[in-house]
Amino acid sequence: MRKLFDSKVFKNKFGQVYSGWIIFFVMAAYYVITYIISDLFIFILSQILIAGGEINLSTGYYGAIVGYLNDVIIPIIMQILACMIMIAIPVITWRYIMKQSIAKMGLNSFKAGHKGCFIGVLMGAINCTLIFAILILTGQAKIKSWMPKLTILQICWVFVLFLVAFGEEIMNRSFFMSVLKRVGNIYVIIFFPSIIFGLIHLLNPNITVFSVLNIVLAGILFSYMFIKSVNIWMCIGYHFAWNTFQGIVYGMPVSGLNIKGMLTTNFTADNILNGGKFGIEGGILTTLVTILSFVVVRYYYKNSEYDFLSKK
Fold it and tell me: Model pTM?
C-alpha cells in the first residue's frame, strides 16, 4: 500500500502529492465525517426523544416538540456541524499534514483584512438590495409581511450564514486555491475551485442549471478577489452579506433554502429574472451584478502589487 502511495500516480517528481489528490481526499474526508457525525447526532437525539416519550415507534406517535426540532432546530445544528467540519479539515490538513503556515493559506488576521471585508460586505449588500428593488419595482416580487426586528431564531441564522460563508470560502478559495498554486496555471487555480463550488450546491432544493452556472460565476468572482488581495476576508464579507440580505433581511430563498426574514417576499412567478424557488441566484439579474462586481474589485485593487502566483 505504501508503494502505491509513493508511486507516480500520487506524487510528482518532487515527491509531492498531486494537488488533485489532496483536494479529493479533503473533500472525501469532509463528506464522510459530516455524514457520520450527523447520523450519530440524529441517532442520539432520537433515543433521547424515545426515552422521553416524544416518539413512540410502535404507535407512530410524534410529539409537537419533534416537529419543532425537525423544522427549526435540527437544520441550524446540522449547518453548524457541517461548517465546523468544513473549516477544520482544510486547516488541519494545511497546517499539520502539509506543514504550511496559516498565513500562506490566505487566512490572515481580521485586522489585516478588515478593509477588504468591509468592501465585500458593502458589495454583497448593495448587489442583493439592487436586485430586490428591481424585482419589486417590476412586479416580479411582492412584500407579503414586515417585521422590523430580529428574532432569536434569525440571530441564530445570521451566525449560521457567517459560518457558511467562512467555511465555504476557507475550503473553496483559501485551501483549494493555495494547494493549486504548485500547478502554476492561474486559469486552473481560478476555475477548478469555482466549478467545485457550483457542484457542491447540486443537492440544494430547487436547483437549476442556470443557478449552478451563477454559483460557478460567483465562485470565479470570489477567486478573483482572493488572487487580487492578501487574504480571504473580502470573499467572506461578500458571501456573508449576500446570503444574509437575501434571507434575513428580504426573506427570499437562499440557494433554495427558505429562511424567515424581517421581510417576507414572494415571487409573483417563477422566471429567469427572479430565479424562481431557488431564489435570485437562479436569475439573470444575479449574473449581471456579479459581472459588474469584477469591475469594482479590479478598481479597488488597481494599485495593488500583490502577485498571487509568486507567493510560495
Answer: 0.92
